[in-house]
Amino acid sequence: MNYHPKSDFIATMIERGFLADCTDYQGLDEALISGVQTAYIGYDATAQSLHVGHLMNIMVLRWLQKTGHKPITLMGGGTTKVGDPSFRSDERPLLGPDQIDANIEGMKQVFSKYLSYDDSETGALMLNNAEWLDDLNYLDFLRDIGRHFSVNRMLSFESVKSRLDREQSLSFLEFNYMILQAYDFLELNRRYGCVLQMGGSDQWGNIVNGIDLTRRVLDHEIYGLTTPLLTTSDGRKMGKSQGGAVWLNGDMLSAYEFWQFWRNTTDADVGRFLKIFTELPVDECDRLAALAGSEINEAKIRLANEVTSLLHGTNAAINAEATAREVFERGGVGDDLPTLTLSGEELPISVVQLIVKSGLAKSGKEAKRLIAENGAKLDDAPLTDAGLMIDQGILSSPVKLSAGKKRHALVQLG
Predict the structure, then answer these.
(1) pLDDT tens across 59-93, in order?
(2) Is 346 exposed, middle or buried (0-12, 13-18, 19+ CB in 10 A)?
(3) CA 19, CA 17: separation in Å to the nearest integer?
(4) CA-CA distance, 27 to 53, in Å (whole number)?
């Protein structure tokens, strides 16, 4: 892009690969150099934890604060009751208020690792849109807010259009989502002087709606900025591993497994991920990305250490690297492996069940295929018999169960 930014924040966004689009580069840039600005990203409470797919935008909020501005993390206590239809082929299952509140509590754990919530001018705010959405009067809302929305225009947004083009049902409930998200931006501007909404590029239509509504109702100049939808070099959506979502809460995914996810990054993605998910200087990211042959593994370890340190702390990263080196380089067991503890009553157990129970396969069928293809090992010895029964004799001391070269679990008797 030809625009040369004056503000540290926009410069960082461009240099590190965070920027997909902006509603007004120059206007936002001028606002950012004129003083402290407030910006937000919204998070619907659809699960008990955020996952790696959210991490890019959490880093955007972190850089916003580091460059002298005020971030808002907006929890969707209200909008989660409706469900965002953007680019989905089906309607989200609706959650009850108790589940939504529990999910928000789980998600909050992560933000404080990346942002400083304090009373300073740039201190982050944690807000919940239920604060203004729960008590809306439907008729007043239709009259005051609904009249500003053109259904023709709403139908033209790609997130809605793609669903209708596939002739998949879009409920009136979901259709309201973009109006509610637009209203969030209006309320945040009115209550907190928030001038910028950020999000993934799939949120472009929702963000533009919020800007239009705020201009019409309050006549305020506000902005939108989106990040690219991140895919790995082989085309997969970022944040999914063989075992499912890569959660950010330590009680849902251990620090070691989180570290291992980053250690297994494809060679072609290392440089890009270093710039986005760590705070290493860009020159250092480029140097590490240029390493060739087996040396690229050191860049992957650096990536895993930096990302794990931010989320779980430096000690967790050090321990994870030590465990990995022990497991992979010396064939040891390591203290930090995911551990399955069985009681005596659960024995004997078939090795197929054990592989599934330890999380190394999703089903018995997958476990049997793993064994048939010589991908499963017990204490580094190939497992060839899918009918093997694991009894107290085999578990007289802990055993290491492996699926391929990189995924391991420890099995022990409790």
Answers:
(1) 999 999 999 999 999 999 988 888 776 656 566 67
(2) middle
(3) 6
(4) 29
Asked if residues 12 and 63 have their Cβ atoms less than 8 Å apart, the reply is yes
Chain-centroid distance, C-alpha 75: 15
Q: Within this chain, do residues 42 and 191 fall inside the same structural domain, yes or no?
A: yes
Q: How many domains does the chain have?
A: 3
Q: Which of 229, 266, 291, 254 minimizes the C-alpha distance to 409? A: 254
The DSSP code sequence of 272-339 is: HHHHHH--S-HHHHHHHHT--GGGHHHHHHHHHHHHHHHHH-HHHHHHHHHHHHHHHHS----TTS-E
Co-location of 31 and 93 in the same domain: yes
What residues does 128 pair with on adjacent strands? Answer: 75
Does 327 have pLDDT greater than 80? no
Residue 351: give the domain boundaries.
Answer: 339-413
What is the rounded distance in angstroms from the CA atom of residue 24 to the CA atom of residue 20? 12
Q: Exposed, middle or buried: residue 397 (CB in 10 Å: 0-12, 13-18, 19+)?
A: exposed
Q: How far is the C-alpha of 335 from the C-alpha of 184, rounded, in Å? A: 46
CATH number of the structural domain spanning residue 370: 3.10.290.10
Q: Is 59 in the same domain as 30? A: yes
Sort strands 339-342 and 407-413 into parallel, antiparallel or unpaired: parallel
Q: What is the pLDDT of residue 326?
A: 79
Report the distance separating Cα 287 and Cα 273, nearest Å. 13
Is residue 147 domain-shared with residue 222, that is, in the same domain? yes
Contact indicator for 362, 407 with CB cutoff of 8 Å: no
Which of these three, 329, 358, 380, is where a domain ends? 329
pLDDT tens digits for range 217-266: 999 999 999 999 988 887 877 765 545 689 999 999 999 989 989 998 99
Q: Is residue 200 part of a domain?
A: yes
Based on the domain organization, do 195 and 270 belong to the same domain?
no
pTM for the model stands at: 0.79
Distances in whole angstroms, Cα of residue 331 to Cα of each of 117, 297, 406: 43, 18, 12
